[in-house]
Amino acid sequence: MKNHSISIITSFLGLWLTSFLQEENQIIVGIILILTFGIVHGANDIAIINKINTDNKTLNSSKMIFNYVLTVIISAILFFYIPLITLILFITASGYHFGEQHWSSMISNETSKIKSAFQLTYGLFVLLLLFYFNSTEVIIIVESITSHKLNSNVIEYAFYVLLVLLALNWIYLYANDKIFKSNAIAELLYLIVLSILFKVSSLIWGFAIYFIVWHSVPSLVDQIKFLYGGFTMKKLLRYIKTALLYWIISLVSLAIFYSLFHSTKLFEALLFSFLAAVTFPHTIVILNMFKIKKAE
Asked: Which segments cross the bilayer (predicted)?
């Protein structure tokens, strides 16, 4: 069972900080966190691709890197021409990616047929939980990205549909998967913690804490173990050094766009669009990483 004690403590620290930070300051600090830990955790995809190619000789590293870059470019183009559809795909891909990272070692392979469905449902539910408690901000950002005015009822209905689907999947796995059963109660408590966090936080602040504390840091640890065979501070520094160039390029690009727009709301839309463009290929890379780990 994964140890989430640090995540819980950090989440409550985030809750405590909401009492002192005005919403605008929450947004600024949240964006800084996303641009540091958040982007760094996805900045070593090329290194992971090379590692996957080393472990699996049937895969071509150059081809995978080309496809990775191509996916980023296509994602950015799609966001420009069909933003609403691309946004839906981004949320779906993010949901699966979050669920896969969180549950990868807590569901046995014997129930693998429902494992992917549960991971997708769980990840989407967490996102809709955040959107449900911050629907006004979500509607503004969606309109900034897509020029479509989203009805708050859509968010509410989607939330309840996912709640039912998650409950059904949860009950099935609880009855049929011993590994899942041993973690189920604790994970329900973690969802309560996230609910409280999302309820009292702004959209960006709540997302930043979840994205960094509950996703990026555990993902970073898994990646370091995959790349270097274990986790130590020395290997963490090695990981950061490898990711540094990509991280700097990302920050410079976003800084240029921000200087052009001079608008926090537009920058929030830009930030989510940027995250979408890199999430699609990143999700595929991590999916292949977990496949290699599963086969070991």
From this structure: 5-21, 27-47, 68-96, 116-133, 154-173, 188-213, 243-261, 267-290
